[in-house]
Amino acid sequence: MKRNTFIFIALSITLSILTMSSCNDFLDITPTGKVIAKTGEEYRALLTYEYKYFAKDRYMTTLRTDELLMDPKRSSSTDLDAYLDLWRWKDENPSPTTSYFTWRNYYHAIYIANYLIEHQREITDATTDEVEQMVGEAYMMRAYSHFLLVNLYAEAYTHCQPALTRGVPMLLEADVNAIPSSSSVENIYQQVLTDINEAEKHLNVVTWEEGKNYRFNTVSAQALRTRTYLYMGRWAEALTAAEVVIKQHGELVDLNNGSAPLPNSYTSVESIVALEKFSSNLFTAINLPSPDFIALYRTGDQRRTRFYKRATSSTYNLQKGGDDIYSCSFRSAEAYLTAAECAARLGDTAAAIEYLKPLLLKRLNTEAYDMTLSLMSDMDQDALIQEILDERGRELAFEGHRWYDLRRTTQPALTRTYNGETFILTPEKYTMRFPTEAVEANPEIERWDY
């Protein structure tokens, strides 16, 4: 068995130190050499590197949803080579040109987070608050990386027996010689919650200034807790956490103001953490919204004209990406939607509608707002839950949420036709296979103990 190949990097105690360049570009960093990290500035540079190269897999999952088309007449040959097999759920023997999910980036981030946590008492030339904040960010980076990994490569928590289902490898030490097997889905989720709790003990920056808001802050811990409980189907806990996020960071962009920035912009008042973004190559492939998905938006919904631009009589172009400004991991609208869904699932439909009102007021014109509230007031519990899930689709479209919402809820059997061939998304395809290179490097990851 190969040594050090699990995370695919030759990391040692000699770590790359990077500093911010003089450029004003968002998250622009330049390498300046390799030394042993000692000072607060050097450890901050390590974190900045991980932020810059954090995986974009949450956006890549859009290719597997009902949000977009893959039209050979509009897709370039490069896009088809890179993304067609993802779009048609061909996970067995995909084309060698397929651009797949970046397993190694997650474990690289986890390694650096572990290294910082383990060496926090050795950091020099930094205030106590600065060190504490970096430690908190490291716990959040480890929690978020494990959370995304388990939702890519393991069964959905709500569709399995979590304690008896294989999850993903969990790394809690900065050991390049580690050859871990996978933990259960339950253990991964519990560790994510534990790391969030630890992060809260250390995080002390409430809001980062624009341009540094890719970093985790105090609100982000509660935002990740909200999402984690939602994916676990623990409605009461998710509702409580969402209410805290709304109280701490409840601002919403008013799309009735035509000059307001889009809510997934890192300049938006909604931004909590602006870490993940489209790569430019991925955006060109995803920029094919499905007419059926566009049809979810009712007349008077400002998102239909702000999120999309009509290209022809039957096609649209996406306006929520393609530029670094559209960087978004957590924003306030998600908390309102989670609170509404959880209240509805707990049987309090009146409260669910109340949670939606502030968001709808900022997304719909007056006529559409009144009509939507009237429609919801006549809905029973099941119909209202579906309406809220549709609202999540409309609001969070093309931000990498749709795949996870489909897999944690009904796991619908989507159907696609390409060049006369039909493809069906079956329940087992809602779980990605471990990357071939990961299994070849460490067959132990397919073994797990419970």
Quickly list its features.
single chain, two-stranded antiparallel sheet, globular, 17 helices, two-stranded antiparallel ribbon, 450 residues, mainly alpha
Task: Report on the architecture of this protein.
The chain has a two-stranded antiparallel sheet. Strands 3-4 form a two-stranded antiparallel ribbon. Strands 5-8 form a two-stranded antiparallel ribbon. It contains 17 helices and ten strands. Helix content is 44%, strand content 9%. The longest helix is centred in the first third of the chain and has 26 residues, at 128-153. Strand 9 (415-418) and strand 10 (421-424) form a beta hairpin. With 450 residues, the protein is mostly helical. Helix 1 runs parallel beside helix 5 (128-153), helix 7 packs antiparallel against helix 8 (235-248) and helix 12 (332-345) runs antiparallel to helix 13.
Summarize the structure.
By secondary structure, the protein is mainly alpha-helical. The protein is 44% helix and 9% strand. The longest helix has 26 residues.
